[in-house]
Amino acid sequence: MGIYLRPATLDIALDALREKSLTIVAGGTDHYPARVGRPLAEDVLDISAIRGLRGIEERADHWRLGATTTWTDVTDAGLPPLFDGLVLAAREVGGVQIQNAGTLCGNVCNASPAADGVPALLALDARVELASAQGVSIVPLEDFILGNRRTRRTPDQLVTALMVPKPAGRATGHFLKLGSRRYLVISIVMAAATIAVDGANRVTHARVAVGACSPVARRLPELESALVGRSGDASLGDVVDASHLAPLAPIDDVRGSREYRLEAALTLVKRLLDQLGEKP
Ligand SMILES: Cc1cc2nc3c(=O)[nH]c(=O)nc-3n(C[C@H](O)[C@H](O)[C@H](O)COP(=O)(O)OP(=O)(O)OC[C@H]3O[C@@H](n4cnc5c(N)ncnc54)[C@H](O)[C@@H]3O)c2cc1C
Fold this sequence. Notes:
The chain is α+β, with helices and mostly antiparallel strands. Helix content is 28%, strand content 25%. The protein has helices spanning 10-19, 71-76, 84-92, 96-101, 104-110, 117-123, 141-144, 221-227, 258-278; strands at residues 4-5, 23-25, 44-46, 56-58, 62-66, 127-132, 135-140, 145-147, 150-151, 158-165, 170-178, 189-197, 203-211, 218-219. Residues 23-31, 33, 47, 67, 92-94, 98, 101-103, 105-107, 109-110, 115-117, 153, 158-159 line the site of flavin-adenine dinucleotide.
């Protein structure tokens, strides 16, 4: 058994990360299941008791979601429609116990291709705040996740928050997940979108992302451009065609073939946008 640190302040945590190689644990819902049957030999930095790291705050031009904010915190926060996609994703992560313990930042840092939070956060243009004893840096989520289980975080850094900019106009989000059953399931495909509309209900801003169809969830920039200027109504899904899925590179695995995933992604993205356009 390695050492187990559970500091109460960020400064102590960052000093510890500077001194020693430590495995960060937040809710532990990815960390511990991945180690079943193996001795717990690593030195652990448990960040769950660090004051000020948990919670969602509205600032002048962005929202700040602290590193130990759980999925349940997201569903219970009474967030505006911009966050509807993230709230729906939160309700689909495991069951209630997992949502109570698991954190958004843990989901992002674990960098699984099937992480349900990642497409929803990409559709929100989320940025990742990283802190070390040397200072703070902010990286777009798109640049933070490098590949399957790989991120840009260096060993002395802790992710301290996710930041979501406030788009201009009336913004709404949505999320759909396809699994082999309704609940407690690893995604075959999931899709998330955020659109903002002006006073004439024209789309001024669109973000669409698809997960589980490439090593890292990907945005669909051509589709986003095609959506801008359209009427934000239930026909939004008509804009989608197969060429918009070019950034995706699904694999065959036990949950679905490459062809099935691409077809499912096309259907899911159309449905997602139609439902988003139907929202009041
Ligand atoms: C039964 C079950 C069902 C699940 N269902 C789903 C599901 O439907 N969808 C889904 O997406 N996931 C699911 N998960 C996976 C998991 O619950 C989520 O990914 C969760 O959000 C992870 O958060 P955590 O705080 O528990 O992460 P942890 O296990 O604490 O950490 C995960 C990884 O992130 C790193 N990390 C955590 N926080 C930080 C930080 N602040 N800075 C730097 N590194 C950090 C850790 O070092 C570790 O590598 C499930 C897990 C279980 C056990």
